[in-house]
Amino acid sequence: AGNALYDSGVLLRAGSLNSSSIKVAINQTSNQAEPSVTKGCADGTITFTRSQVKNTPQPLQVTYSGNAIVGVDYATLPTTVTIPANATSTTIPVRGLANNQNSQTLIVSVLDPFACGGNAPEISADTVLLKPQPIVRILTQDTAMCASNALQIAVASSEPLMEFYWTPNNAINNIRLQNPIVNPAKTTTYYLTANL
Q: In 3D, which of 165, 170, 164 has the Cα closest to residue 189?
């Protein structure tokens, strides 16, 4: 026997159930448009985030693919990363290893931490370009010249987005130019610093 007055039900609005989203993003130290790390130079970082602060740590399974080779193009990266309790993110370094090879692609993927059974699907991915070290060469040889003459210093660079800085700032038209013009009154040695 029953009483219809005491029957109950649960109603869920469509789209009202969701889980904390997980994202991966590559951060770089260069001024490039796409995420990139220059091999043998400053490290980039990989940041893993979740949308909400939780009081429990969140372990994440990470996979790496692309044509970059671990130990040749980049240093070994962990296959498990943990977002700490009471945090929304964690960051690990990605180090490109200096070699004479061309650019390679490294794809970092996070697998669904809430998947049941085997083969968890990928839920977030980002790509970083591992670029070879740039080559900068001063083409102008040591030159003797008269004090009233000017000389343009020629520099070749394999990277179009290099930033140049010449010292000393003495009788030079612009210390930030790749190919500045100099007109020193006495013997002067110019030094070039190039940054990516």
A: 170
| Both structure tokens of 142 | 């040591």
What are the pLDDT tens digits along the chain (196 aa)? 556 666 666 665 554 444 557 777 877 655 566 778 888 887 888 999 998 899 999 999 999 999 999 999 999 999 999 999 999 999 999 998 888 778 899 999 998 887 777 788 888 888 888 888 888 899 999 888 887 789 999 999 887 778 999 999 989 999 999 999 999 988 889 999 988 7
Q: Say if residue 168 is preceded by a cis peptide, omega within 30 of 0.
A: yes
Query: Residue 127: CB partners within 8 Å, gap ≥ 6?
Result: 26, 35, 66, 105, 106, 107, 108
| Cα–Cα separations (whole angstroms), residue 53 to 88, 94, 97 | 5, 25, 35
* Helix (H) or strand (E) run with residue 136 in it: strand 136-138
Q: Which residues contact 32 (CB under 8 A, 6 or more apart)?
A: 129, 131, 161, 196
E-strand ranges in 51-133 read 58-65, 80-83, 89-94, 104-111, 122-131
